[in-house]
Write a structure and sequence with these properties.
single chain; alpha+beta
Length: 313
């Protein structure tokens, strides 16, 4: 004999599927995560939500099963109260349908890791989810069949599976092609790293012939780097003898390095070298055509003042 009867299970799966397909807070959160940080973040957000629901379901299963054993009458009262609560939710959703919108956060993109933890934490700390779980599950548990805890676990597992299937699909459906207005994650071009075989000679040319202003010229640990200001604003030209190759490196500042890299990955970029520069964490990479680009997050703004005016050569 099955833990849950076939007819009850079919009815339960149909109801849960309809509930999951109806746009709600969880689906909107997954959608917003995908819009901000790409399809991977959208799917991981759905997994985070599902993990949070798993915690609620396990707690509900343990508590309701214990309640049935201790006080069957109270269990029946709770079941009828739960049915009333579900009816009220349905009426309210019909009255407010279409009123919810996906709202972008102030910070713009968010990383995949943040999407998972936010989905988990917000779901675990949502008392409405706990009430919903307590109200829904008892409607499909048949105490006369015995194995009440096992019935709760089967129903809960089905709930989580459908959650991941539906909301995970929504998250994965968000792609760069479906987000034409999503800008590239590049901020301001702050630095232009230029390979130099003779930094002193290049520095003289940039200042004496091109009219640039020397910001600093540092010699340390066997390398030389000179910064030259050619225009009124950025980028700052950095002549460096430790930079290999012939092509310069364009270094862009971003507000959130993890989020920017997640956005690039959603567009098909492959993650490459991550390192530290004096101003903060940085990721440098080459395009298929050999162009060199780097993104960095300004976490140490005091670094610029540390080098300004220094002349070692």
């Amino acid at each position: 004999m099955w833990v849950v009867s076939g007819q009850v299970l079919v009815a339960y799966l149909a109801l849960v599927t309809v509930l999951m397909l109806t746009p709600g807070p969880d689906m909107l959160f997954v959608l917003a995560s995908g819009i901000r940080s790409g399809s991977r973040a959208g799917f991981v957000a759905a997994v985070g939500v599902a993990v949070g629901e798993t915690i609620h379901l396990l707690a509900a299963a343990a508590g309701l099963a214990a309640l049935f054993r201790a006080a069957p009458v109270l269990y029946e009262l709770l079941r009828f109260a739960g049915a009333a609560y579900l009816l009220w939710l349905g009426v309210r959703s019909l009255r407010t349908r279409g009123g919810q919108q996906v709202v972008e956060g102030r910070g713009g993109a968010q990383s995949t890791r943040r999407a998972f933890w936010r989905g988990l934490v917000t779901n675990v700390l949502n008392p409405k989810m706990a009430l919903f779980t307590v109200a829904l599950l008892p409607q499909f548990v048949d105490p006369s069949r015995g194995q009440v805890p096992a019935q709760f676990l089967v129903l809960g597992a089905c709930f989580v599976a459908i959650e991941i299937l539906v909301d995970g699909t929504v998250g994965l459906a968000i792609s760069p092609a479906s987000r034409p207005d999503q800008p590239a994650p590049f901020g301001r071009l702050d630095f232009l790293y230029v390979p130099s075989r003779d930094v002193a000679a290049d520095l003289e040319y940039f200042t004496q012939v091109l009219g640039g202003r020397v910001v600093f010229a540092v010699a340390a640990m066997g390398t030389r780097v000179a910064a030259v200001q050619l225009g009124e604003g950025p980028p700052l030209v950095l002549l460096a003898d430790h930079v290999e190759g012939e092509r310069p490196i364009l270094v862009y500042r971003v507000a959130d390095l993890d989020a920017a890299l997640a956005e690039l990955e959603a567009r098909g970029w492959q993650r490459q070298q991550t390192l530290e520069i004096p101003h903060g964490p940085c990721c440098s990479f080459r395009t298929p055509g050999g162009h060199r680009i780097a993104l960095y997050q300004l976490t140490r703004p005091e670094a610029a003042g540390h080098f300004d005016g220094r002349r070692d050569f």
